[in-house]
Amino acid sequence: MYSIHELAVLSGVSKRTLRYYHELNLLLPEQVTDKGYRVYTTKQVDQLQQILFYKQFGFSLEQIKQLLVEEEENKNKMLEQQYRRLKAEKEHLDTLLQTLSKTIEYQKGEIFMTDQEKFLGLKAQRLQDYEMHYETESRERYGDQLVDQTKEKFSRLTLEAYQTSEAIENQLILYLQQASLTDKEKQEVVALHAKWLTQSAPFYTTEYHRQLAELYRLDDRFQSYYDQKAGDGAAKRLSSIIKEILI
Length: 247
Known about the structure:
Elements: E1 2-3, H1 4-11, H2 15-23, E2 31-32, E3 38-40, H3 42-56, H4 61-69, H5 72-107, H6 115-133, H7 135-142, H8 144-155, H9 159-176, H10 183-198, H11 206-218, H12 220-230, H13 234-245
Antiparallel strand pairs: 1-3, 2-3
Helix pairs in contact: 3-4, 5-6, 7-8, 9-10, 10-13, 11-12, 11-13
GO molecular function: DNA binding; DNA-binding transcription factor activity
Coiled coil: 61-103
Protein name: HTH merR-type domain-containing protein
């Protein structure tokens, strides 16, 4: 048996944090005495070890709470997703470090650096942003195969193709910053957005385009992408335009 003080000393987790975990129903004491003292056993020690393990690998407390009660199959799926994310982050960080190192040497005149090499770090950062904010939702909605194919296609983009994609998006942002658009301009917005999607997506269909429009309307993470670039409400305007044109 452990008091809250003893468990805090044993685990290195503060008493305040243990109380907070209790409030969240994340780590329940074996019992609470009549005087309000929390009592823990080896069972809670094991649970706390799991919580700290999951925290170490980037899971939120809400995700950890779900993991602790999930069936083994679902738990493994969540762990595999997190493993892929962390592995991708490591690969992207390695690429960024290599690009930075070469850039320093290039700036000093010590080596020659191709435009393609300069471009690798930018692609790595874009992929990492996607994985951190959008990948989980995309996999749930479209499946692993489509997401993997999309990432593979993007990673193979040439410098010219990447610059084309950036130019298309910049045109799109200019339209979305306008308060109102003509019917012709709305058609141009949808055409630009479709062209931008095909730069990385392995295929394009109007149904896929409409589904993405729904995410711009309903999902805060997808909304923030265009709202940050073109102002508040830009993502919902884009969603409405796509649905209006692709009836």
